[in-house]
Design goal:
Blueprint (H helix, E strand, L loop, with lengths): L2 H8 L30 H7 L15 H6 L21 H6 L16 H6 L21 H6 L11 E9 L6 H12 L4 E10 L7 H11 L6 E7 L12 E2 L7 E5 H28 L5 H19 L3 H16 L37 H4 L11
Parallel strand pairs: 1-2, 1-3, 3-5
Antiparallel strand pairs: 4-5
Length: 376
């Protein structure tokens, strides 16, 4: 170190006690660090920094730390740069004691900046498997789904939909259900994935094959298959979820929708005929009684015929999706106890009473539990 450089900093009024450690007659002071910034005097000289000031450029990062990590201790503005692209700038990396050249300091597959932003510890890999919001998604899975809005501190529910030809999901139905869940604190995302081979009747063994073959998001998404017809002996119904709530495949059967509408129409015609007969039989009581009979028949027809394909798809998808997050009451035989409230989507045939606003009753909604394992 040149004598003049040592004398200059030995007499620097801003250096304080550090000045006493610089002596042009003492060769040993080359290895001293009077300002405790991690750089010895000889290193300060070579870097062009001030040996009496731990932060020469005043950017909040010690000179030694900057040199150690390849930054410029003479450039104030590099505090705002992010060389590893992890979302945490250099001053942040210094404050959290992370590596500004490694996007994942603790090696837990989650970026340092993302961990800091979400209240996790960028220096501990133990939080990788955590699930602070109890939505069944581990923190590292939430990180991988961040581009889709996943948040480790707010419940998320992702659903992959595959469909057979002619059975494409109704977008307005998906939009309605997403909005319904969102308004109640669950970030629901339906992802229409791919068309799968048409099968006139899907059996138990076939749905299992479809599930394992076409689910692209194993471990993070529920799985819905819009099929032509489900004919599983273990289920006993055409349109519904398979197995217990922990199973992730929901079969939506288009033939069931079509048959429900057809049954409604036939029942409506029958009710109209019955109403007409009743009115005729009551005609001797007078026109008022006849009018009452006709009105009752009309009301019955309207109720039975009012369910549209949109309502049926929305109600059944909400019903079966509800099962996948534990919204279900079971009797001692593990059979579903349907909701007695006719307007609740957990009621049997509730699509005739839901209008265009299908919903869960508070009792059933209170059963929800997203923390169950997402993957099969």
């Amino acid at each position: 170190m040149p004598d003049g450089w040592e004398v200059w900093y030995a007499n620097n009024p801003a250096g304080g006690a550090a000045n006493n450690l610089l002596d042009p007659d003492d060769a040993s002071d080359k290895n001293q660090d009077p300002d405790n910034d991690g750089l010895t005097n000889i290193q300060e000289y070579n870097a062009g920094t001030d040996p009496t000031n731990p932060d020469t450029d005043g950017d909040g990062m010690p000179d030694g730390w900057e040199v150690q990590h390849g930054l410029n201790p003479l450039n104030y503005w590099d505090r705002y740069s992010d060389p590893d692209g992890d979302g945490l700038n250099n001053i942040g990396e210094y404050q959290y004691d992370t590596d500004p050249n490694d996007p994942d300091t603790d090696g837990d597959t989650m970026y340092d900046g993302w961990e800091v932003d979400n209240g996790l510890d960028p220096k501990s890999s133990s939080d990788k498997e955590g699930d602070p919001d109890s939505d069944g998604l581990k923190n590292y899975q939430e990180f991988n789904l961040r581009s889709k809005g996943s948040d480790p501190n707010s419940q998320d529910l992702f659903v992959e939909i595959d469909y057979m030809s002619g059975h494409y999901p109704t977008q307005s139905v998906l939009d309605y259900i997403e909005g319904y869940y969102s308004a109640r604190g669950i970030h629901l995302v339906f992802e229409i994935d791919e068309q799968i081979p048409h099968d006139n009747t899907v059996t138990d063994s076939e749905w299992s094959t479809l599930h394992s073959t076409y689910l692209d998001n194993l471990g993070t998404h529920k799985h819905v298959i819009y099929a032509h017809k489900y004919d599983g002996g273990s289920l006993g119904v055409q349109w519904g979820y398979v197995g217990h709530p922990s199973d992730q495949v929901i079969i939506l059967d288009q033939e069931c929708e079509d048959s429900v509408v057809a049954i409604n129409v036939l029942a409506g015609i029958a009710a109209a005929a019955a109403g007409a007969a009743a009115a005729a039989a009551a005609a001797w009581l007078g026109p008022i009684a006849a009018a009452i009979a006709y009105a009752a028949a009309f009301a019955a027809v309207w109720s039975l015929m009012s369910a549209t394909n949109w309502q049926i798809e929305a109600v059944v998808l909400m019903h079966e999706l509800g099962h996948s997050i534990e919204i279900i009451n079971l009797d001692s035989n593990d059979d579903e106890i349907y909701c007695p409230k006719g307007w609740c989507v957990m009621a049997k045939g509730s699509f005739t009473n839901c209008d265009n606003n299908p919903k869960y009753c508070s009792q059933h909604w209170g059963l929800r539990d997203l923390s169950s394992v997402t993957g099969p």
